[in-house]
Design a protein that fits this description.
The structure is a single chain. This protein is α+β, with helices and mostly antiparallel strands and 140 residues long. It is 19% helix and 45% strand. It contains 2 helices and 7 strands, in the order ββββαβββα. Strands 1, 2, 3, 4, 5, 6 and 7 form a 7-stranded mixed β-sheet that branches. Strand 5 and strand 6 form a beta hairpin. It starts with 6 loop residues before the first strand and ends with a helix. The mean pLDDT is 93.
Length: 140
Amino acid sequence: MSPAAPVVGVGGVVVRDGRVLLIRRGKAPLYGRWVVPGGTVELGETLEEALVREMEEETSLRVEPIEVLTVFDRIERDGERVVYHYVIVDYLCRWLSGEAKAGSDALDAAWATPEQLAGYDLPPKALEVVQDAFRRGAGL
């Protein structure tokens, strides 16, 4: 059965000491792939509240959203049928506290330099947003 409506998701791109935080997904979609950490917005939450909650649940980090990096659709189809449809808002975030470790929906967490990104085989949109964050987040 197809979903009745798109789901809103948020992602947090944290650049710290010249490295970006990535997680390896522990559930579908993109199971096992390295991506930007984040999750879905719950009813009654603002985008920023959801981002702060999801980042702490998934990475054990406390972060502050700084600016929106991108908004995009992730749609998976099986023929004509829509399997899932997420509208994702990715934020550049400032690290406040905590040590990164895989939580809730993550299998692993890692800090990567720009030179190491190729080894993580990020989905194209994740790579694009991470590269943009490195350009914008140099001073964070």
